Amino acid sequence: MSFKSEIKIGNKLIGKDHPTYIIAEISANHNQDYTRAEALVKAAAECGVDAVKLQTYTADTITIDCNNEYFQLKDNIWAGRSLYDLYQEAYTPWDWQPKLKQFANSLGIDCFSSPFDFSSVDFLEKMNVSAYKVASFELVDFPLLRKIASTGKPIIMSTGMASLAEISDAVEVLQNAGCTELALLKCTSAYPAPPEEANLKTIPHLGQAFGVPSGLSDHTLGTTVPIVAVSLGACIIEKHFTLSRADGGPDAAFSLEANELKGLVQSIRTTEKALGSINYQRTTKEINSTVYRRSLFVVNDMKKGETFSEKNIRSIRPAYGLHTRHLEEVTGKVASKDIKKGTPLSWDLIV
């Protein structure tokens, strides 16, 4: 069984011949306020994204309540906190999620989630989500991968921290468990991620290596990196989204605000238009511009019988005269009649 070269989420096809699929990751930016969660979905839809993404876990389904050294966060923006404490703050209440999905769908965008254990997959199946997202940290959880693949839904998997061998192992697990629609996202699991660690050239290699659509789950600041990713062939862009970084929250520091997300969507759509196809044909506007190319003109008044030389003929704009390739051929010949300055050179003027 092989993977499809494109996947379908909702009514959108995702692959190299289709528009970039843009996902706004809500994550913890609701700050435990349902009204804010709905406002995030609404704002994301107004920005023009294709989907919003949730995360389905509780602190108890993703870790345990333990404060020993193994469960302490280090060397990131959450340093000094325990995993349980962070996830207790960041999780999205499960009773919100069916309502948020319904609301997103009413606005014309998809809504799916990253599950983190078997119970969350079962819950999302009852919601009838259109796809699943595998977070980078869960790429090594083979039982969870098999559970997600068994749903038969399209899967988008982030590959942060993973070696090529680890990605290959995870892909094989998904494939053997029945997954046929898979997309892989290059991801740098740092929060925020430095642009110099993005290694975007990996994106097309991911797609070629596994025969699937590839894209970017981006944690860099700003919008430059995902726009460049699209120019390299990214089929999917995922970006964290908040109403205001000033409002705080676990993910706020590396999330886009509405004006930035809207600008990103517009820039991606412009990039897609600019990429176009391999084409050496003149566009309509170029055809109209060819008249302003260079050609041979008489640049000083000439008398009949006068010799053509660099003093009286030149290659200049516009393009009404003979092609410039004839300059040496014409030089040394004589005028067939009187010629006024500014006359396009033509064969009937030459003896």
From TrEMBL:
Residues 295-351 form the AFP-like domain. One of its GO terms (biological process) is carbohydrate biosynthetic process. GO terms for molecular function: N-acylneuraminate-9-phosphate synthase activity. It holds the Pfam family NeuB. InterPro entries: AFP_Neu5c_C_sf (IPR036732), Aldolase_TIM (IPR013785), PseI-like (IPR051690), PseI/NeuA/B-like_N (IPR013132), Pseudaminic_synth_PseI (IPR020030), SAF (IPR013974), SAF_AFP_Neu5Ac (IPR006190), SAF_PseI/NeuA/NeuB (IPR057736). CDD domains: SAF_NeuB_like (cd11615). Gene3D superfamilies: Aldolase class I, Antifreeze-like/N-acetylneuraminic acid synthase C-terminal domain. It comes from the Bacteria. SUPFAM superfamilies: AFP III-like domain, Aldolase. This is N-acetylneuraminate synthase. It comes from Desulfovibrio litoralis DSM 11393.
